[in-house]
Structures are given as C-alpha cells and as structure tokens.
Amino acid sequence: KTEGTGNVTFPVKIRVSGRDPKLKIGMRAKANITLTEKKGVYAVPYESLADAKNGGYAVYAAKKDGDAYRVTAVPVTLGLQTDVLAEISGPGLKDGLPVVAGTDGVVPGAVIRPAVSGGGR
Predict the structure, then answer these.
(1) 75: closest CA among 42, 51, 106?
(2) Which CATH architecture has domain 42-112?
(3) Is pLDDT above 90 for 65?
(4) Count of C-beta atoms within a 10 Å radius of residue 27
(5) Exposed (0-12), middle (13-18) or buried (19+): which is 67, by Cβ within 10 Å?
(6) What is the pTM of this model?
(7) Is CB count within 10 Å lower at the N or C end of the chain?
C-alpha cells in the first residue's frame, strides 16, 4: 500500500529467535528495512544538487573569498539514493566543505552569507 507520504507499506512475516515475555501473539510492529548501507560517504538532499555544464550533477560549495563566501560548482557523481538523499562522490569533495542547501536562484560566482546546519556524512 502506498501512503501519501511516499512510504510503501506491506505485511511481512518474521521469525523471532529466542523468547521474550513482552512479545505477544497478534502484536504489530513498524520496521525500516535497510537494503543497502554504505559508510564513510557523503550524502546531500536532492535540493542541493544542481545541473552541471557537462550534463551531470554538481553541488554548490561556499568557498571563502576574502571576507565573503563565493559559490563554486563542484562536479559530483551520484551513488546510492533514498527518497530524500543522494550519495555523492568527486575529487572536489572533502570533510567540512560547506554545501549550499538549495540551488534555486543560486549561480556560481555569487557572493553569499552561509548559515550553519548539520553535516551530511
């Protein structure tokens, strides 16, 4: 069943090893099933992806330029994707690189004032 949130639900049967007196017949549970997981990669929300000149993708980074920050396009390759995040890789990525969270109306070379938020690794 597909819900309005984009989540898909379906019944499954599981076998529980061991006994736990808290488990009762007919109980219901919610679970997230992880099909694939990668550690030590970068991930960004889809709204952080921009179209690159070569037809691929880029993220816009805020690079220090004197007293200001200037937007620079960093080419990336997409990897695993969820409904909200995309794994990215590329030689221009590094820990602590400030990435612009939304690319609408942002162009490379623009001067911006970044706001700090959480990391994507």
Answers:
(1) 51
(2) Beta Barrel (2.40)
(3) no
(4) 7
(5) exposed
(6) 0.67
(7) N
